[in-house]
Design brief:
By secondary structure, this protein is α/β, with parallel strands linked by helices. 50% of the residues lie in helices and 20% in strands. Strands 1, 2, 3, 4 and 5 form a five-stranded mixed β-sheet that branches. A five-stranded mixed β-sheet has the order 8-7-6-9-10, with helices on both faces. It is elongated and about 90 Å long.
Length: 415
Amino acid sequence: MLSQRLLARTLGVDAKSVRVEEVELVEENVEIRLRPRIKHRWRCPHCQNRCPGYDPGRERRWRALDFGRTKVFVVARVPRVSCSEHGVVVAAVPWARHGARHTLAFEQLAAWCAVEMSSTAASRLLRCTWRTVGQIIARVVADLDDDELLEGVTRIGIDEISYRRRYRFLLVVVDHDRRRLIHAVNGANASSLGGFFDLLGEEKTAAITHVSADGAPWIKRVVKKRCPNATLCADTFHVVKWAGDALDQVRRDTWNEVRERRRYGHQRARGEGKVLNDSRWSLWKKPENLNDAERARLDYIAVTHPRLHRAWALKEGLRVAVTGTGPGAIAALDHWVAWAQRSRIAPFVRLAKRIREYREAIVATIENGLTNALVESFNTKIRLITRRAFGFHNVNALIALARLALSGQRPKLPT
């Protein structure tokens, strides 16, 4: 028979903590009978205190790492113990988590596979269902150190991401300095964000110096209430998007005026209307990224529809102002607000009012160079996780897998 030390090493446990009693081939599976050594017997799985026995228990099986093409199972008789704090519970074993039916090494491999490959590939490689892999991920994530994840956080980014239709959102919080996900929870609202600050605690919350976010009013309210000393930075991408939305509203209004003037009714755009309909990307793109056809279309709009061209110029002016640096960019932002107020273009007049409300946060972004770009990249990775798994029935499974993959605590391949 193989040595006890070699078998224990193969199972991913320390030979000093278990004793190999028997190895046998049962049908097409290998069964290895283990027994914890004296030091590791009769311990509560929650507090690890040594407790008096309650009963001799029964024989239990755990799935272990395969030997090539052969499945391996660990078999042991595990008693129940009577803990003064946790009551009657099944005694802890050195090779598996409490309540699990897989060894620690197998669960580590399953967690690694779930992060590195698709759900179908992981299930086929491990020869188990994806639901089983999801339960393993939940147990692995439960063992991660939350305190270490939230330690030393000073600059955070907050955003929401839709994970399912009908307005189902996750709240995502990212550490800018260590570039990792530190919190994700179902529901993007003031209460869920307040729950994050409760989890963080008053001392760690007071240590936060900068918060980047989009223009959601509920984020601004909660941050001002819970982190009054933190600098709120408005994401420049969303500020430019506001200008893009205002520009698109002006383009649609112009198209409707042309359609009414030409009496096309509800017919598809033709002639001048088609030029306006096709000019959407020409108006959205940066001038340096336009091709010859798009540049010619923009020149045509400048001659035939000067109001729409002025709206495009306002959009570009705001983009240049908020993406700049230094006092010049702040002066350009103030100049743009005055320009938009005098433009007599209703969507941009409303946008100027909104920019005035968020001026402090936009100026903080210009001065500190802190945007939500890192948070948006994490959102893209969460969407990739969802797509690779073809969706999740339970949002907690998505949160657990995202935490495992993006929190800087990725599982290592057991070698």
